[in-house]
Each structure stands twice: as structure tokens, then as C-alpha cells.
């Protein structure tokens, strides 16, 4: 177990249930389970038992104590063997539902874990919830008695079963109810603080690894090499080749690189065209030379990535349109650097870098978590056009230099 977490329960059963979901190179830091009655309500269980008792008692004949005129008035409810079957079934059914729900959500079915990658909530033999450090928006405590409380990171309201978030995950409540997290934890405030510290350290470690990879890339790549597309890349870089469009580029070797097919065009609905420039990205796959793609994204962290979109023909925009982009003014993006005449290998075009504050929504990629720079380049040789967009933290000169260097390695190759 990791020393940064206290109160871990090294229980064999819990470890076995968690281990089935542990991935390669993933390490368990902390194990836990909810305290008794923290995943269900004893009041609801008691109410269920009371309703069952009332239903069975009513059917057993205790209704006979009612006055005769009352029995006659409600005779339409009397069923089999002159006993009030319908109300008895309603009461008993409601009671059974509450009792079975309480039993279904009992504390022994839950197991919790914190690893080097995520927070995990297992219910039965199902991985019900998981959250990475990047996905955590907040961590809070809902107090119970004493220092026992629920450490939660999400509140789910009454959403329909079909409701999904931007990643396709369901938004409706599950067996954990409104509060998603670790329920019934002793020293809940301390655990909450430890999770926040874990999140901070994980993000810092990710940034440190990404920066080290970027430094290795910068020391290995030769921007002026005319034969970059034919050589064997140095250890710090990976050569990416698009055989369909006929170009290559070098990216940091340890960055995650994926490819996809992007479609741009009219969005039809029932034969009517509503929007004429809709961007739709297909499924992303890890780069392989035999794949057909027109969109590449290489990512060091969630806040540092670069994408290249390729299309046939000349550029569909010009320098004046980019400099006078109305959206940049609305988002208060200030120009940091601009190159109206850019030459890279066989390509010519232009580039611009703007500052961007945290909290800005980037289409297809989510919201910026920190103040950033957005670097954009447009290159073409008349037959092939490349649109390059990159996001990097404003405080990291190494990452800024890296995403500025990647486009300089673009070269034409034979299809």
C-alpha cells in the first residue's frame, strides 16, 4: 500500500474483487469498503418490514375489526375468501421492494480502491465507477456521525436512463444513489485531503514525464534535414507516415499518438441540410502505417497536444481571415506570435499563436484546465493542405517549443 493513504483495509476478498479490474502497470495504493448501513437506509428497511406486516395482517383477517358499514362501503376491494386482496398485495409488494432494495445495496457488496491511475468503485463483480485524476472536478465530504462520512466526487440527479455525458457514459443514478464516491469512511476528511493530494501529484508527475519526453524529442530531431521522411528516427522521436496523402512528420516517441477519419460537410436531417460545415471525427486508433487516416493527434498530457488534419487541394482559408478571426476577439485571445509567410519543406503557408485563459471550451476536446497557448498553422503545396492545431500550457516553454517544432518536420513522401 502507498504511504500517502491511511486507513487502508488489506482484506483478501476486497483485493480479489478489485484485482480483476487492475490493468498492466497499475498499482493499488489503497483499499476500502463502506461501513454498515452506509449504502442503504435502516429507516427504509424498517418501513419495508412494516408494510409487509401490514399487508399480511390485513389479508389474514384483521380487517374484520372494522365497522360493518365501513366494510360494506369498501366491499369492492374485497377479493378472494372475503379478504381485501388488492390493498394487501399493494402493501406487501411495496414492503418487499424496500426490503429487497436494501438487501441488494448492502455494504458487503461494495469494494473501493485507489490506484496510481484512478479511483475505483466495485459493486458485486462490476466496476461501477472510475475516475482518473484529470477527470476529478472536486472531492467533498458528506458527514454522517463523528468522523465517519461519505467522500464523494459527483452528484447524480434524476436523469433518464438514456442520458449520456460527452464521453458516452450514463448519467442516471445507479445503486450508489445521488452521491458517487466512497461511502461510510472513517476519517473521511483526512481521506478527502489525501485524494486531493494524490490528484495533484499525479498531474504533476504526468507533466514531468511529458516534458522529459519533449526534451528528448527536441534533442533528437533535426528540423533542417531534407531527408527526414526516409531516415530512421532517433530514440526520442517517432516517424509518422501517411501513405494515402503522401506526407510524414516526426512526433515525440513517448507521446500517445492516434489517428482517425475526420469528415467535414453538410449535416442532413430528413432530407434537409441544417449546417454546412459540420466536423465529425470517427473512432480513434493507435497509429499504424497501414491505416488510412486524415486526422492525427499526438498527446503528452490532457493540456498538451497537437493535431494535424490533411485534405486534398489548396488551403480553404487565407491569412487575413485568420488574423481577423471574430471568435478570437470574443474569447479575448491575444496574439503571442505570428508568421504570415511560413515555409516548411515543400509546403508554404502561415501560422499564428494566441493566448487562451483556462475554462475555454475546445470543440471535440473539452475545457482547458490552465492558461494556455493555442498554436495554429496552415500549410499547402497546392495538392495537399495541412491544418495544424496545438494546445500547450502557457507556463511550459519546453512543451511550447515541442509543438512548434513538430510542424517543421513535415515532408512529402511518395504515395
Structure explained in plain terms:
- With 415 residues, this protein is an alpha+beta fold.
- 25% of the residues lie in helices and 33% in strands.
- It has 8 helices and 22 strands.
- It has helices at 12-19, 42-60, 68-73, 85-104, 188-220, 319-323, 326-330, 397-405, and strands spanning 28-32, 110-115, 119-123, 126-131, 140-143, 149-155, 179-185, 237-242, 247-252, 256-260, 262-269, 272-281, 285-286, 295-301, 304-312, 335-344, 347-356, 361-362, 366-367, 372-380, 384-393, 411-412.
- Strand 20 and strand 21 form a beta hairpin.
- Helix 5 (188-220) packs across helix 8 (397-405).
- The two termini are 53 Å apart.
In short:
The protein has 415 residues and is an alpha+beta fold. The protein has helices at residues 12-19, 42-60, 68-73, 85-104, 188-220, 319-323, 326-330, 397-405, and strands at residues 28-32, 110-115, 119-123, 126-131, 140-143, 149-155, 179-185, 237-242, 247-252, 256-260, 262-269, 272-281, 285-286, 295-301, 304-312, 335-344, 347-356, 361-362, 366-367, 372-380, 384-393, 411-412. The strands form six sheets. The chain has an eight-stranded antiparallel sheet. The chain has a four-stranded antiparallel sheet with strand order 1-2-3-4, with helices on one face. The chain has a three-stranded antiparallel sheet with strand order 5-6-7.
